[in-house]
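Hi Y.,

Following your request, here is the sequence exactly as I used it, all 88 residues.
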Amino acid sequence: MHGIMSGLSLVRDAVEKDDWENVRSILDVTESSGHTLRTTLNDVLDFGRAINPSEGRELTHSIDLAQAAKDAAVMCSAQFVDPNGNVS
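Below is the corresponding structure, written out as tokens. Let me know if you'd prefer a different format.
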């Protein structure tokens, strides 16, 4: 969720500054964060079925942990600009 919210904030800042070079890469990482969140939530919701397979289906989702870590590193390496224009 943090990756999605941070990514959207970074996109908003980039659009306001007409910094179109970074928008696509930020959106790609944000989209990947969304897919990872969806997969994680689906796995959590299916946890009960995994414990008692007679009542549900097998878990078939997998998460590419290396890609998730790479996406997190890219997102964390981006600079944050607050509403006053201060870079941190």
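DSSP finds four helices and no strands in the chain.

Thanks again,
Q.
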